[in-house]
Amino acid sequence: MxxxxxxxxxxxxxxxxxxxxxxxxxxxxxxxDYMLGGRGLSPKVAALSAGAxxxxxxxxxxxxxxxYVTGLASAWIGIGLxxxxxxxxxxxxxxxxxxxxxxxxxxxxxxxxxxxxxxKALSLRMVSAIVIVxxxxxxxxxxxxxxxxxxxxxxxxxxxxxxxxxxxVGILITLGVVLAYTVVGGFLAVSMxxxxxGCIMMLALIIMPAVVLWGEGGGGxxxxxxxxxxxxxxxxxxxxxxxxxxxxxxxxxxxGYFGQPHIIVRFMAIRSIHEVGVARNIGMSxxxxxxxxxxxxxVFGRAYAVRNGLDIADPETIFIVxxxxxxxxxxxxxxxxxxxxxxxxxxxxxxxxSSSSLTEDFYRLFLRKDASDxxxxxxxxxxxxxxxxxxxxxxRDPDSQVLALVSNAWAGFGAAFxxxxxxxxxxxxxxxxGAIAGLIVGAATVMxxxxxxxxxxxxxxxxxxxxxxxxxAAFIAIVVVTLATKDAGEYQHIER
Length: 496
Hints:
Elements: H1 2-27, H2 31-36, H3 43-54, H4 62-70, H5 75-102, H6 109-116, H7 121-154, H8 166-214, H9 220-231, H10 244-251, H11 261-269, H12 276-307, H13 318-326, H14 329-367, H15 373-394, H16 402-426, H17 432-451, E1 457-458, E2 461-462, H18 467-484
Antiparallel strand pairs: 1-2
Helix pairs in contact: 1-8, 1-14, 3-8, 3-11, 3-12, 3-14, 4-12, 5-10, 5-11, 5-12, 5-16, 6-7, 7-8, 7-14, 7-15, 7-16, 7-17, 8-12, 8-14, 8-15, 9-12, 11-14, 13-14, 14-15, 16-17, 16-18, 17-18
């Protein structure tokens, strides 16, 4: 059993490293090459890179786990995400690709905002960089938690390091492989590995639900439905027991797309604005297939577990348990690789965006304004390692929930950057004072909402997802402050 799994995983790890080494030739010439791949991503690579960096371990662990517990009511999260991603591709992608070049060939989101609002450039770069690093450390930690859970569940009897838990070993192995190809190959390596990882993830989410339903012990859709109805009839209901606030909190996940730096940076790197439409169609098709697979896995995985008397202590490990139980070791290794792909694709993107922001918006801005491209590339590599180690420290608790960590970071980015990105691209009246107000108000609202526990319980009822008040407050802050202040130098008409 172990040898087949390890063969598949070894091949996967080796492929990631080879891609990193291949990309190294093109990743070290200039800062633009290292941070944006020279703005030369093809539509298919840009599309799957955006999708894979978005759909982290929560796609194979967190989302199926939520559906395992609550049934189809949690599927509204996936629907909200798909609609939000589509709107993001239509409204944000072409404009961001065009305007980041128009405004000083910006390589990071903070740099774009600084160039877009020059009178507040320094403040914007500082505030936005702080928000990026703060929330990305938490987001990266969620991916490492997923990696730790995989190794703890799947390899507890195989991997043993004196003085370290299997969970901790899993975190270190996951982080080590990601650092290897991210540090070496930069954005191009991350994007190319994302493409491969996206293909692996989609195949896994087609294979797993099919086998769970129609393989040995599955019984087909009719028997699975009968089993779920016997456990709890609401498991197959989209609305039963779901309040209006609960529904809004689920679909509001889609608001987060407009402000996720690790996703929208792919729009900046696509080869040309004319290829955005092709990338959108590829990306949305991939996302639809993957989300349907994850939803089916969570719901029908519950039916399979009940029918076959499986004791699933942690619902977020249903993918791992079924991978080991239902498949030949070589296929099991492939499915584990799919989970690692989901984890690593997001971690690598987040590490690189954090590193880029630390390099461009702190080091080059305050410490070494005349730093060469080569020096910035090396500093960027060092920052990748530092952010990864901090995230590993946060992820050290094995009881951490992947979906909870992801939801907090997703809301933080969505509220802080989402309204600002939309308005800066589509409302020429927006000014620097309004931009700063939106960043601060959005991030602060999310953190306050979480600290008060209002995302779990609000006014005696169900909690309200923190992205809703954060997004609304940030949008209002930008509009009000912009209209209340004057900065004629920033009212630039953006020609199409």
